[in-house]
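Appendix B, Record 12. Input sequence as logged:
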Amino acid sequence: MVIRAIKKSDNPTVAKVVRQVLEDLGVPKVGTAYADKALDMMYETYQKPKSEYFVLEVNGRILGCAGIAPLDHYEGLVCELQKMYFLEEARGKGYGEKMIQVCLQKAREFGFEQCYLETMPYMKAAQKLYTKTGFTYLDGPMGDTGHYACPVHMILDL
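Logged structural output:
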């Protein structure tokens, strides 16, 4: 298992992984990451300052991904844990916990003080991982991610 920064050549595979996970989980295609224009060019999207996107490789295959970037439309040292998805074959093996730690360490290196995320109510396994990591629930959204179909909002002090 390897967690590494995304390469431009990873773009098609990462987009396929994210879309597959969202389809498997029955996530709406509008108002979620599925409809993000950036999904087909994740490498380029994360070339901005204080942004990094990672892929999880197992035996040379990309099975998951996640990233950190400044929270859109928000003033302050808050980043967002973005597009963290794992194919079914990678779930339940501790990869998510390792990936989230890599992302949070990068967020600290970038100087962020808090990490925000949004998810779906029925993504219980993901929420369990987030709370285990120290994220707590918020009453509403922060910033404006454009993911209006994701009604669960969480925050972590770094």
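The mean pLDDT is 92.
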